[in-house]
Design goal:
Layout: E1 4-9, H1 11-14, H2 24-39, E2 43-48, H3 51-59, H4 68-91, E3 97-102, H5 104-108, H6 110-125, E4 129-134, H7 148-159, E5 163-168, E6 173-174, E7 186-187, E8 189-190, H8 213-225, E9 229-234, H9 240-245, E10 252-254, H10 263-270, E11 276-280, H11 282-289, E12 300-304, E13 312-316, E14 322-327, H12 332-338, H13 346-350, E15 364-366
Parallel strand pairs: 1-2, 1-5, 2-4, 3-4, 5-9, 8-10, 11-13
Antiparallel strand pairs: 6-7, 9-10, 11-12, 13-14, 14-15
Helix pairs in contact: 3-4, 7-8
């Protein structure tokens, strides 16, 4: 059965740990594996890190750049070289590829989100393997995904993938960082990410990467919420993907949530960056969480952040726990005036007639 697979490989798997030069043996295995997946009828998207690491190696830099301008310059050097290697390797197997560079803002606007979806679907229909990376050369801090784990999860959600594979420098998730704790126990299956609250994970695995196990768990949370089965496994053995699809228990698998949300609500949940917080009283929490109601002004007790109408916000209970997020119908300035008020009082308070709801239920997604 044909499935859509998003496969993310990290810098720590793609490059030599000390020099930043490409690990060509791993790259060759990865290319062969993805080409085999295509020959089996699967649709494949590769999210590849490595541009900054390759750029550093090309320029003889021994440490990852710290400033945005330097990162952008180094990424510009590395991205072309990385894609050339991919193209050379895939061409030997007659597998066409395409480069797709994204920033967070590309998925925040509904029109560009839909356009990105259509572009991916057309590439996959043509039998192409899109190779995705964050557009480090242009992205500024405010519009960055931050790491390619998050990017891969959002791309998987965008294209409604069946699987997300996160290839990294450890074989699977452990109860603690195995590089520093010899007693760390492997975890093969995660039914609920909330169960990982006591798991201690380390920082990023190499000088060249930006992620780490924390970002992979967050990526798994995003993907499983969208109904996508997620796997963390060894990046130096990409052929394990074929074995996992055949049912072998390799790496750590995260069970997807049943009853995934529709495309618009996936965009709200995973495409938008919340600009503020709305704190709700107990009655509003019950109405939103249990009764599927829209949020009204009367249930809001406090507002945090500055935002405009149609921005995304987080809805939190009195303890600050996020219960939902959605698109707000009023700015923070307006809400400061009407929070706690009854709907029929809004026009009198503001001096004009506005929306009855603060966040309509059609623009609201519950947190899991």
């Amino acid at each position: 059965m044909s499935q859509t697979l998003v496969i993310k490989i990290g810098t720590s798997s793609l490059t030599q740990p000390d020099t930043g030069f490409l690990a060509l043996a791993t790259l060759a295995q990865l290319v062969e594996t993805l080409s085999q997946l295509r020959s089996h009828g699967h649709q494949v998207i590769l999210v590849s890190s490595g541009a900054v690491g390759v750029g550093c190696a090309r320029l003889g830099l021994t440490d990852r750049p710290q400033t945005i301008a330097m990162k952008q310059a180094v990424a510009a050097v590395g991205q072309g070289r990385l894609m050339r290697v991919y193209d050379d390797l895939f061409s030997t197997l007659q597998q066409p590829i395409a480069q797709v560079l994204l920033t967070r803002s590309d998925l925040e606007r509904r029109s560009s989100y839909i356009n990105a979806y259509r572009t991916f679907r057309q590439l996959l229909k043509l039998g192409v393997i899109p190779i995705v990376n964050e557009n480090d050369t242009l992205a500024i801090e405010e519009i960055k995904f931050g790491d390619n784990d998050t990017l891969s999860a959002r791309v998987a959600s965008l294209v409604k993938a069946d699987w997300l594979f996160l290839l990294t420098d450890v074989a699977q998730l452990y109860s603690a960082d195995p590089r520093s704790n010899p007693d760390a126990q492997p975890i093969s299956m995660v039914d609920n990410i909330a169960d990982l609250v006591d798991v201690k994970v380390g920082d990023r695995g190499s000088n060249w990467g930006t992620g780490g196990m924390i970002t992979k768990i967050e990526a798994a949370r995003i993907a499983t919420t969208a109904g996508i089965r997620t796997v963390i496994t060894e990046g130096r053995s990409p052929q394990n993907i074929l074995k996992i699809l055949q049912g072998e228990s390799i790496g750590t698998q995260f069970e997807p949530h049943i009853g995934s949300i529709n495309a618009r609500k996936r965009w709200i949940a995973h495409g938008l960056v919340p600009a503020g917080h709305l704190y709700l009283d107990a009655g509003a929490v019950r109405a939103v969480q249990q009764a599927g109601k829209s949020l009204l002004a009367a249930g809001i007790t406090q507002i945090a952040g500055e935002f405009h109408s149609q921005d995304a916000v987080k809805l939190c209970d009195s303890a600050g726990l996020e219960i939902a997020r959605g698109i707000v119908n009023y700015s923070s300035t307006e809400l400061q005036k009407i929070c706690g008020a009854q709907s029929e009082q809004i026009a009198e308070i503001l001096g004009y007639v506005g929306e009855e709801t603060i966040v309509h239920r059609d623009n609201l997604v519950l947190s899991l």
